[in-house]
Amino acid sequence: MSKTVVLAEKPSVARDIARVLGCNQKGNGFFEGNRFIVTWALGHLVTLAEPESYGDQYKTWKLEDLPMLPQKLQLVVMKQTSKQFHAVKAQMQRKDVKDIVIATDAGREGELVARWILAKVHVQKPLKRLWISSVTDRAIKEGFQKLKDAREYEGLYQSAVARSEADWYVGINGTRALTTKFNAQLSCGRVQTPTLAMIAKREQDIQSFKPVPFEGLTVETNKGMTFQWVDEKTHDRRIFAIGKAPELQKQLANEVVTITDIKTVNKKTPAPLLYDLTELQRESNKRFGYSAKETLSILQRLYEQHKVLTYPRTDSKFLSSDMVDTLHERIKACDIQPFRKIVAQIKQIDKKKKYSFINDQKVSDHHAIIPTEQSPSPTALSEKESKIYRLVVKRFLAVFFEAYEYDQTTISASIGSGKVTARGKQMTQLGWKVVYQDDAASYEEEESEPSLPKVSVGEKLPVAKLVVSSGQTQPPSRLTEGTLLAAMERPMAYLTNEDKDLAETLGKTGGIGTVATRADIIEKLINTHLIEKRGKDLHITKKGKQLLDLVPDDLQSPALTAEWELKLEKIANGKLDKNEFVKEMKQYAKDIVQAIKRSEKTFKHDNVTGSPCPDCGKLLLEVNSKHGKRRVCQDPACGYKKNVSKVTNARCPKCKKKLEIWGEGEGQTFACVCGHREKLSNFQERRKQNQHKKVSKKEVANYMKKQHKEEEFMNTALADALAKLKKQ
Fold first, then answer.
1. Which positions are catalytic residues (predicted)?
2. Which of 87, 249, 264, 686 could connect to 409 by a Cys-Cys bridge, CB 3.0–4.6 Å?
3. Which of 188, 178, 205, 170 is nearest to 496 (CA)?
């Protein structure tokens, strides 16, 4: 009997598909049943070849060898996962296999994972595509009943290849040119450089901001009403003529407030739209301080492992009309604590009703992130997973409620020759905000406006008190990961010149990068020390500022990057040939290299030490890595590096923060940011003396596990000391 190979992206998804398809026989890198063989990638098994594959001259970085523009980029099997590639290849090439189902993630990158494997295997068998938005058993069964012809996704594949090749040509040429020209480890990229430029622009706006002082005047009446002085021309409550407010205070001390107008307007606020990935990452960063990368990782687990949320890498906030039939079961899956009271209030889904969140035109590859028909077990989710799951469920349930309604009353009055106003708000229908009654942090009122006492036009209210206040205008806030994601999605404000056509382009493309790549871009900027986090705020480093000074201006423009994203979208829709775009990228890479070669600028390291490199004699640089400090040669061609300190799991006896260990051998010393210092020998002695205060097995196990993971540096003396404690 002929069989079908199903290629999943990850082992966990492959196991789910295998179970649903009845593939119970475990093989070496695959599951097999009567009709199907399910195998898997491990993310990418095949990738674009490194520069050295195109000639020995590229093994060393030399400016004169640039630009590197191979006629055709080669694919290579990744060494670290080659065993699984050959397992996949063996199954695809079996004589009893008649066709192949691509079941990798339903997106541009998932398409690339599968197609590159197929290209490297050189298999010519018929292809079908499994396109699903959740990995519940039901979704998998329905997906296999509606398999699509893989040729429908050829444009998506070509778009993915174009994106990868563009990043190769632009990124590698730009990075090698910068690094060799300025003798520093510098990198640039199609998306990362304009993202860095947006952070730099915000920094510039903050530094150039000049605060302007202002005053305000509050008028309190004996009826308990508080009015604000308003400029009749500008309608601004702020008085920028310093000294005017105290004068008014004296002038109006014996005046009365006369009501001149009362306006009450009924306002409606509909429920917020469903989450797309960027919006959810922003909310998660704002509420919980999670990074964009961390939020995406949590979502992937909720999607793949727990199967309680749909596919996360989406840029849509809507659902398609064919999903209406599934809404009842999704709501039923949410009928768990703490949502039961809310679910009970949602009436039967009216299939004829036109819901505002159903819009086929605004759903491309994937709909919004919503719950699946499957409920999580009470103890299945971690604290972080539970927080993200609850955000999604609340947003999903909220859209079934009516709008939040309130009456907004504005009372205008005169005092002397001036004007004052008071505003109040009275809720008339709670609507969708019932979902957030127990969660004040989610949807607070834009302004706290109390309800007002009843008054009538012409009524006169004696003044009880006049209060002068003062303040000054504030600079723009620093970008956080959440607000940076929003800026990447809508970067119109970061264009240097106002251009309506470019702004329109940015609007069409959804900004720079994609929902799937933005988190990685931010992470890369942090890891390469171009930006740094201080609390939640992102700051550009001196290295980042210098890099922007060295990179050609047009590579910093979000407009150019957005135009490229638009062309990638056209390739996906079959409206642009991939080779045309790649040709343009090659020319652009050539222009970047020439501009860098002609540059007369210099790069100044701000982290030079006084220690010479033992290999080449140039002064070493001190850099912060994720796990401590290291010294590296400033010449990338030399490559010398040495760890000088390591963040350990040992805790400071004074402030309980993690200690860093410096030095080598017997001279190793612990140091803490609070100022505490302690030799390793003293630390070990103190540990012995405090044996009655036993370290928990969990603490020791975690310490040993983390320390063994560090391949480049291992503090064996400390590990031995803790290992002895573990045995006791």
1. 311 (o-(5'-phospho-dna)-tyrosine intermediate)
2. 264
3. 205
Q: Is 105 annotated as a binding residue?
A: yes
Q: Token pair for residue 77?
A: 């099997």
Which residue among the candidates 303, 311, 406, 443 is catalytic per the annotation? 311
Ligand-binding annotation for 9, yes or no, is yes
**Cα(310)–Cα(308) distance, integer angstroms:** 7
Residue 419 within any structural domain of the chain: yes
Burial class (CB in 10 A: 0-12, 13-18, 19+), 79: exposed
- Look at residue 363 and tell me if it is in a domain: yes
One-letter amino acid for residue 8 of the chain: A
The answer on 27 and 140 residing in a single domain is: yes
pLDDT tens column, 360-399: 888 877 899 999 999 998 889 999 999 999 999 999 999 9
Whether 169 is a known active-site residue: answer no
DSSP annotation of 381 reads S
Q: Which two tokens stand for residue 125?
A: 């068998």
CA distance 101 to 151: 12
Number of structural domains (the chain) is 5
The rounded distance, in Å, linking the Cα atoms of 362 and 343 is: 27
What does pTM read for this prediction?
A: 0.79
Write out pLDDT tens, residues 113-167.
999 999 999 999 999 999 998 888 999 999 999 999 999 999 999 999 999 999 9
- One domain, residues 110 and 86: yes
The answer to whether 551 and 190 are in contact (CB under 8 A) is: no
Give ∠ CA 289-385-302 in degrees, rounded to 5: 125
Range of the domain at 450: 213-263+409-423+446-472
Q: What contacts 454, CB < 8 A, 6 or more positions away?
A: none
